[in-house]
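## retry 2 of 3
previous attempt timed out at serialization; input unchanged, resubmitting
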Amino acid sequence: MITLDGLRKVFPAPGGGDPVVALDGIDLHLDAGRIHGIVGRSGAGKSTLIRCLTGLEKPTSGRVEIDGTDVAALDGAALRGARRNLGMVFQHANLLDSRTAAQNIAHPLEIAGVPRAQREARVAELVELVGLSGREHNHPAQLSGGQVQRVGIARGLAAEPKVLLCDEPTSALDGGTTRQILRLLADLRERLGITVVIITHEMAVVREVCDTVTLLQDGRVTQTGDLVDVAADPHGPLSGELIPLPPVPTGVVGTILTCDYGDSGTLRTSEDLVRAAERHGAQAQIVAGTIETIGGRQVGRVQLALRGADGRPAGPELLAALTAELTEAGVVAREVAA
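## retry succeeded, writing output
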């Protein structure tokens, strides 16, 4: 559905200094009908990527292909036509205060010249779809934050796009409302078969709703893939953020071993890991742990404090034997440097 091929965007520096490379050769393919999360810290290139996807910025080089059309090569009416395949949802919905919810949803259809009867039918359909029945005649000031965002989502869907691009859609909402909006996006994907791209810095959003995730750093893609695979890769930059560990308590005696496991291996729980350690003559204590359900699968990360039979921190021979068994069982185990 979306293919970025060698996407590069360079901005000239004010005052004639060195140019700013915002996007540096991005290659990325996003399949249709899935929910994709694109994450990165401030300055990673997320905003520039959005503007290139929507055709608001022309890339310095490379292709931006959406549903088979290179948006970067279009201008004028052709570009406006291609943009109809892309709906936008913003962090702040930026609704028109003088218009009701229904009138805000209808606004892009008015601009596109859609006849009134057709507009009204489409708005009624969207109001029902996003759960705003009974609120369609309210003005923005009469709506909650979540209801305002539902209006924004309905407006983004008005022209029946194939892709819904959401820029930080929940960062201004509380936790409960965030979960409702994410469930709505997942439901829309299922009912409409639409492709959803969520630009976010919130890992909770990625864990909750995304099928795939891409990390941007300094204008480059540094990790991308199915969410479960990325979360289960302990050597990748995103794993620790998707499955964070609480701090290890102070005063723990033992060699600390971090273990990453999933429900597809033969050791599927933290208790399994403790029993494996005990089979090697170790005393094992769980000192930190996190279990997340990601993509319908449980993925866990625990830290064990290991001591030998004499009560002293486990030595290299015990660690080597235990690590070999864990590896064979599909667990990634690594010692934490003291």
